[in-house]
Design goal:
- With 193 residues, this protein is of the alpha+beta class.
- It has one domain: Jelly Rolls.
- The chain is 26% helix and 35% strand.
- The strands form three sheets. It has a five-stranded antiparallel sheet, sandwiched between helices. It has a four-stranded antiparallel sheet with strand order 3-8-5-6, with no helix packed on it.
- A hairpin with a 4-residue loop joins strand 1 and strand 2.
- Helix 1 packs antiparallel against helix 2.
- Bound molecules: fe (ii) ion.
- The site of fe (ii) ion has 3 residues, from loops.
- The site of fe (ii) ion (FE2) has 3 residues, from loops.
Length: 193
């Protein structure tokens, strides 16, 4: 089944009426990623670290992420349930939990689990989840992340990647993570000229 963004949005909206919207969304995202090549050709090209809003409403947000080689998005929460799937490369997720006594000095969190998802695979997180995402490959990776609410309007936290201390996450900080990756890519490109 070839990827159809309009259909994905319609089906996600329908899934919200389901008795377990997150489970229904997980199922339909997995189905939507069955033909990864068609997902790739339907969305913006994956040659820069970037993300785009594919859909946004009060109850639902669909984001498209493109991860640079070896890129890490440091620990953050969503305060919304989330279902994430990959259509190119891999995403390695580390799950974190708030901790009074972290093994990392004054850190607010500690790692409690991990998952790695490849092409066509989908992962679910509850609204309390804190995760970091790494592209473990030397190529670009890309996926679709769906949230059970308005991502932009929901207060979220990020954790400093070195101190692991909580700060408020805003759009500017989020964008800076992608900008740094693209600066590195530009630098590497320049050096190879
Ligand atoms: Fe996330």
């Amino acid at each position: 089944m070839s990827f159809d963004l309009k259909k994905l949005i319609e089906r996600c909206e329908e899934a919200l009426e389901h008795e377990n919207p997150q489970q229904a969304t997980k199922r339909l995202l997995r189905e939507s990623l069955q033909d990864p090549g068609s997902v790739k050709s339907a969305l913006m090209p994956g040659n820069r670290a970037d993300f785009e809003f594919l859909y946004e409403s009060d109850n639902l947000t669909i984001l498209h992420f493109i991860w640079a080689p070896k890129m890490t998005m440091p620990a953050h929460n969503h305060n919304l349930w989330a279902v994430v799937g990959v259509y190119e490369g891999r995403e390695d997720h580390i799950f974190w939990q708030k901790a009074d006594n972290s093994e990392y000095g004054d850190a607010d969190i500690r790692p409690v689990g991990a998952a790695s998802i490849g092409v066509g695979e989908v992962l679910s997180m509850d609204s309390h989840a804190i995760h970091s995402v790494t592209n473990p490959t030397c190529l670009f990776a890309a996926g679709i992340h769906i949230y059970g609410g308005n991502f932009r309007e929901t207060d979220r936290s990020g954790w400093d990647p070195i101190l692991l201390q909580e700060t408020r996450l805003d759009a500017e900080k989020n964008q800076a993570i992608f900008d740094v990756e693209n600066d590195v890519l530009d630098l590497l490109k320049h050096r190879h000229k």
